């Protein structure tokens, strides 16, 4: 279309002359496919570590129905946290949706990103079977721990005193490799245990 406009010719005339001179051109289907291709994004190591923590907490990756490429979804009760993470993804060059609010007895805010092939490695790491999240063998860097704690961490008081234990929630799954790191990083008595529908990682106040 651009060439046709510049030469003030019909598109079909341009196509005819190109083919007549054995110049290869894209089909309409190839042109449409190319127009939908996205510029690749190189995730920094910092962003990868943050993404690990987000998926371990309130974030998730999923492949839409009839789709093949993963997208990211984030939910949080805190609007400021949602805005922070939405901006974080956009700073990486990833398009995000508007923030939407839901209150069905559980007040929360959410946003999602566009589908990106760059999420593939994290998707295969955290969702190796049937699209169900698992806790993989990853290194607990300070950034990963921070964003996991922001999403699903809490502090529990010890009795009536001022000492606090830390709790990190997972969704029904534990991992000996992660537990070993917690015991080395915080305290040897760190453990995980099941509580109702969740499995929690527990860090005693001596390791805080």
What does this structure look like?
- By secondary structure, the protein is an alpha+beta fold.
- The protein has 8 helices and 8 strands, in the order H-H-H-H-E-E-H-E-E-H-H-E-E-H-E-E.
- It has a 4-stranded antiparallel β-sheet with strand order 1-2-4-3. Strands 5-6-8-7 form a 4-stranded antiparallel β-sheet.
- The longest helix is centred in the middle third of the chain and has 13 residues, at about 80-90.
- The relative contact order is 0.11.
- The model has no long low-confidence stretch (mean pLDDT about 80).
Estimate the strand proportion: 15-25%
Structural class: alpha+beta
Radius of gyration: 24 Å
**Number of distinct beta strands:** 8
Main-sheet strand order equals 1-2-4-3
Low-confidence runs (pLDDT<50, min 5 residues)?
none
* Largest sheet properties: 4 strands, antiparallel
End-to-end distance: 64 Å
Mean pLDDT: 80
Q: Bin the helical content.
A: 25-40%
Number of helices: 8
How do the SSEs run, as a string of H and E?
HHHHEEHEEHHEEHEE
- 3D shape: elongated
Please tag this protein with its features.
four-stranded antiparallel sheet, 8 helices, 208 residues, elongated, 21% strand, alpha+beta
Concise overview:
The protein has 208 residues and is an alpha+beta fold. The protein has eight helices and eight strands. It has helices at 2-7, 11-20, 28-35, 45-56, 79-91, 120-126, 142-152, 176-185, and strands at 59-62, 71-76, 100-103, 107-112, 153-157, 164-170, 191-195, 198-203.
């Amino acid at each position: 279309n651009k060439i046709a406009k510049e030469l003030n010719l019909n598109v079909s005339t341009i196509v005819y002359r190109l083919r007549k001179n054995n110049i290869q051109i894209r089909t309409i289907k190839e042109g449409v496919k190319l127009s939908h291709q996205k510029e690749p994004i190189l995730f920094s190591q910092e962003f990868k570590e943050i993404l690990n923590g987000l998926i371990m907490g309130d974030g998730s990756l999923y492949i839409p129905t009839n789709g093949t490429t993963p997208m990211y979804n984030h939910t949080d009760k805190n609007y400021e946290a949602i805005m922070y993470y939405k901006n974080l993804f956009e700073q990486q060059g990833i398009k995000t949706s508007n923030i939407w609010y839901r209150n069905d007895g559980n007040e929360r805010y959410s946003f999602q990103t566009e589908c990106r092939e760059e999420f593939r490695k994290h998707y295969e790491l955290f969702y190796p079977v049937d699209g169900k999240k698992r806790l993989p063998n990853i290194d607990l860097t300070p950034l990963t721990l921070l964003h996991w704690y922001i999403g699903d961490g809490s502090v529990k008081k010890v009795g009536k005193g001022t000492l606090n234990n830390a709790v990190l929630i997972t969704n029904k799954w534990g991992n000996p490799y992660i537990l070993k790191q917690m015991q080395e990083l915080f305290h040897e008595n760190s453990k995980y245990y099941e509580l109702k529908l969740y499995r929690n990682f527990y860090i005693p106040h001596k390791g805080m």
